[in-house]
Amino acid sequence: MTTGKQVFSTITSTGQLELTIADVEIPTPGPDDVVVRIEAAPINPSDMGPLFGPASIAEANLQDAKLIAPVPKNRMGMVASRLDQKLPVGNECAGTVIATGDSDAATALDGKLVSIMPGAAYAQYACVPASTCLAHNDTTSPQRAASSFVNPLTALCFLETMRMENHTGLVHTAAASNLGQMLVRLCAAENVPLVNIVRSEEQAATLRALDAKHICNSADADFIDKLTETLIETGITLGFDAIGGGKMASDILTAMERAASRNASGLNTYGSSEHKQVYLYGSLDFSPTTLNRAYGMAWSIGGWLMPMLLARIGRERTAELRQRIADEIDTVFASDYTAELSLHEMITPEAIARYLPKKTGEKYLVTPQKDL
């Protein structure tokens, strides 16, 4: 076999999204490269933008194995840099090394199960530098190895940020997600206080089953009061918000300020001097971020991305984090999946309707070899 199938995403200058599956040549590895037969690739929220852009997926239809969907004119400016380009998609995946270059680093991976981040994970084959591969233990399955980077590294980097900025715990929103459940297990193992914010009793029950200690439901009428009480107990001054839009970040800061100022007396014009920080790392809500500034002056809100944090901590520390993930991929960093999809199945309107809403507790896996 000399070719493999691969998914591509194109947004045309005429305002149309096209998802296609093409046959591409299996690359020949350079001296320091390996060729990986991809066996499993998760669909993460961070994959949705590259896949669909701002297209109206509700109007999508399948035409000759090609998904077609319109892009509203008022959203075309959002994707000006990618117009008429046939782009590979998929952040991370896992598979078996089937060919290598002749360097020692490459040949050492021959036949190994590895995780990679090729930026073209929705494909049957990928060629990457050997140095970028995470080799797994012999007992690890491709399904578990598939989610070795995005969520595990994000969880670990939350704690790296916490320690670098001298905080002692953290608040996390959308906490019943795959990442949130991973974070519960990680913080328990590290003895780090964690406040989990969910939006339903069902999600709270999911976290209670994991023995999560602090859970606050944003749907409760007394949510901010309960959050404040929990922050008084834990002393947490750092939050990571996956929601982005709306007033969640502001509510977290408000509760942090109430906790920090609980013993204040007399004039308190500028609030507590204890710095409070919330990072927006996701955009589950695309509406504007609303700040109701009732939390003094010692606060910050900023954006946060895991790759930027990895660049700060350097290669040696990053390698240590990656090795921990490989060693604990079946425990702390385990991911389970709602369903497995072939490449052809993943671009059907029926499948997209299932995974695009990013429902809590649901995660989908692409298995490219099903398309043989």
Supply the helix-strand structural class: alpha/beta
Count of β-strands: 20
- Overall, the morphology is globular
Distance between the termini: 11 Å
Query: Level of helix content?
Result: 25-40%
Indicate the mean pLDDT. Answer: 96
Computed CA radius of gyration, to the nearest angstrom: 22 Å
Poorly predicted parts: none
Sheet-strand content, in percent, reads 25-35%
| Largest β-sheet summary | 7 strands, mixed
- Compute the number of helices: 11
Protein architecture, described:
- It is a single chain.
- The chain has 372 residues and is α/β, with parallel strands linked by helices.
- 30% of the residues lie in helices and 27% in strands.
Q: Helices and strands in order, then pairings?
A:
Layout: E1 3-11, E2 16-25, E3 33-43, H1 45-52, E4 61-63, E5 66-70, E6 87-88, E7 93-100, H2 104-107, E8 113-116, E9 125-129, E10 134-135, H3 142-145, H4 150-164, E11 170-172, H5 178-190, E12 194-198, H6 201-208, E13 214-217, H7 223-234, E14 238-241, E15 244-246, H8 248-260, E16 276-280, E17 285-289, E18 299-303, H9 306-327, E19 339-341, H10 343-346, H11 349-355, E20 364-366
Helix pairs in contact: 4-5, 4-9, 7-8
Question: What's this model, at a glance?
Answer:
It contains 11 helices and 20 strands. The protein has helices at 45-52, 104-107, 142-145, 150-164, 178-190, 201-208, 223-234, 248-260, 306-327, 343-346, 349-355, and strands at residues 3-11, 16-25, 33-43, 61-63, 66-70, 87-88, 93-100, 113-116, 125-129, 134-135, 170-172, 194-198, 214-217, 238-241, 244-246, 276-280, 285-289, 299-303, 339-341, 364-366. The model has no long low-confidence stretch (mean pLDDT 96).
